């Protein structure tokens, strides 16, 4: 079913909610290859699981839908309704967020209204926690409101208690307090420097902070919150959240055999690194990736490149075409290719989880995006942390300070230097330090595996969630 095109008015943002509405049998969808084209694999798998006893309608954005269609040269059945506004997405984040706040909700409202009218059996509404409108819309159409959180419980809990941070002058002031934050329920004392980057800002009127304040006000009124984390890893934080609201840790949300997954995580084609990895000794290769969209400054990029040369380790480096804002296509230092020869491999994209699970890989230099952290833990690969913004700053604390499964690449205050990069790489890849990290990460992997077994916490939480949703729906009816 395709809904009519909406007019996005004066603010030009990528068209959101009028994309593709898929009343899906995901089994069929997958075998027809459509899931594999889908860029948000977390959500696809999540939907597949949740299908248990439910019918799912998946609403995709028109922009993403267009990207998917474009990537399929043989797909002649889909019409292209999309404006070419994609580049605006990150070129002007503020403008994008203004659209997100002011234009988007009306369209979601209209879309959900149409859906509910055409199918009155729709009872439940699942949306990403960062959205600012779920409560209003769920209420209007009498739907059970489920918030889906894609970062650690620690990060959710901090956003959840923004009011406390403000009362204590740790957020929203120019001369913020610099002492530890020890009053967030279920959260051990945390330093202000470890807060998410958005909370380090002081301009409360910025579109980002307005979005955050509104979204985390809304989430308090959700009926249920699903979190892509593991109960045993964040038990105190989750218990404290659960006292306030029904919260379910159901992670890690990726296929139980991710290396066999047919779900691509991006529309860029994946470079196959297997043959190259086969030629390398066990645990000798460092994998480097900064996720799907953050950019590295040109200075940091250069220091990392030189640090790699100095370290002498073998590596695979994912360099997306937009990894830095360099205009030139060749962004690597002069002579880099000659120096690395067959020691290093640069790829535009690959299957990260396949690379991480290869025995030749012994370390991961990561920006600490939550999916990367989960995947690294799953594959038992110690991390070298280079957080860039948002939750990555706080995720680093979990990885290095709390779980002891990674090292900092730098102190986060002074700029990184090539010498320090090389030293840290060598620490992770060899010697006593590396072995200690490996021991800890094996325990974490075991915890994750246990959570996913039939009697494990994530499975149990998930079934509890399904049962609670059914009860809630019945009560409402
Ligand atoms: O060559 C590559 C590089 C990455 N990936 C995948 O891309 C995803 C990257 O996700 P993540 O590590 O979470 O990073 P971002 O794409 O940067 O994720 C955004 O969303 C996350 C979840 O909300 C946040 O934790 C991050 O801070 C935010 O930047 C992972 O599944 C990787 O396996 C690949 O498959 N191949």
TrEMBL record:
<dbReference type="GO" id="GO:0080043">
    <property type="term" value="F:quercetin 3-O-glucosyltransferase activity"/>
</dbReference>
<dbReference type="InterPro" id="IPR035595">
    <property type="entry name" value="UDP_glycos_trans_CS"/>
</dbReference>
<dbReference type="InterPro" id="IPR002213">
    <property type="entry name" value="UDP_glucos_trans"/>
</dbReference>
<dbReference type="Pfam" id="PF00201">
    <property type="entry name" value="UDPGT"/>
</dbReference>
<protein>
    <recommendedName>
        <fullName>Glycosyltransferase</fullName>
        <ecNumber>2.4.1.-</ecNumber>
    </recommendedName>
</protein>
<keyword id="KW-0808">Transferase</keyword>
<comment type="similarity">
    <text>Belongs to the UDP-glycosyltransferase family.</text>
</comment>
<keyword id="KW-0328">Glycosyltransferase</keyword>
<dbReference type="GO" id="GO:0080044">
    <property type="term" value="F:quercetin 7-O-glucosyltransferase activity"/>
</dbReference>
